[in-house]
Specification:
The chain is α+β, with helices and mostly antiparallel strands. Helices cover about 20% and strands about 40% of the residues. It comes from Oikopleura dioica (Tunicate).
Length: about 300
């Protein structure tokens, strides 16, 4: 029992902890990863893995780095990039039977790209209908967004509130809500026209998009006519396809019936179904030798 307790105590005493020189590191900065051991023998084997890829193996303090990594003290180093954002693991064991495993996620900070309004693609909203403006930017961690609009009458820049109905003074007659990168119009009005842009921000920095004019209008007659013609064309196309399928099915049945019930005369000529076959009549007009006078 004492031996068992000592063994458990020895196993619990050994530990390993993976360390980054910075828990959140900017793209391009020097990244150093080490595995700190406690309670291990001098001959301890240490492995550092990026997901399932081994980037360091050391034994007794002598290590080898793999890929684009380089040995740095008791760990590895390289210039940080977005591809380095992953889970890292440290696995250690020694000749005394000690074992430890630890893992930790690395965050690489990347400033947001220039945000842009991607929806609607034609930058137009329909009066009396619901609509959306969508802004997109790339970054790590994912950015948060702030929306702005330039007042058409005064030229003043206005920050869009979470709900326009709470700021009727700056946004009269507007009914929209802001949910991060999306502005949702409950009912588009003429006053919603104007220049909009968005700002993307994260721990690495801030980027501001270019102002884009978003117009408002109604569903015009040309659009309605186009929709009607599209519907008529679709119905006509379905009718043609159904007719072609029907002809193929009925035509195949007819051919099969005639093939199974064809009748031929002595010389291989077709004879219509229901027609009596008279060999003499059939051979009228052909060259025959008259043998009626032969006794």
């Amino acid at each position: 029992m004492l031996l068992f307790s000592s063994l458990i105590s020895g196993l619990l005493a050994a530990s390993a902890e993976i360390q980054f020189n910075k828990p959140k590191i900017k793209q391009g900065e020097l990244l150093i990863i080490t595995c700190e051991l406690s309670g291990f023998q001098a001959d301890a084997k240490v492995r550092i893995l990026r997901e399932k890829e081994q980037i360091l193996f050391s034994e007794g303090g002598n290590g080898n780095a793999f890929g684009s990594w380089q040995i740095s003290g008791q760990g590895v180093s390289k210039q940080a990039s977005t591809s380095d954002m992953a889970e890292y693991k440290c696995v250690a064991d020694d000749s005394a039977g000690n074992f430890a495993f630890t893992e930790r996620a690395l965050i690489v900070l990347v400033p947001p790209s220039i945000p842009s309004i991607v929806e609607p693609s034609d930058k137009k909203l329909i009066v009396g209908k619901a609509g959306e403006l969508v802004c997109m930017a790339e970054g790590s961690p994912p950015p948060s967004y702030t929306w702005y609009k330039q007042d058409q009458a005064t030229g003043v820049t206005l920050k869009l509130p979470a709900d326009a109905r709470t700021n009727a003074r700056s946004f009269p007659n507007s009914q929209f809500t802001v949910d991060q990168n999306i502005v949702k119009f409950l009912n588009v009005t003429e006053s919603d026209a104007g220049e909009y842009w968005c700002e993307a921000r994260n721990e690495a920095g801030t980027s501001t998009g270019e102002p884009v004019f978003v117009g408002v209008g109604s569903l015009n007659i040309a659009s309605v006519v186009g929709i009607v013609f599209a519907v008529i064309f679709g119905v006509a196309l379905i009718g043609i396809i159904a007719f072609v399928i029907f002809k193929k099915v009925t035509g195949a049945d007819s051919d099969s019936y005639m093939g199974e019930n064809e009748v031929f005369d002595d010389e291989g000529n077709d004879v219509a179904m229901g027609e009596s076959y008279d060999p003499y009549e059939h051979h009228k007009g052909t060259n025959r030798q008259d043998i009626s006078h032969v006794v």
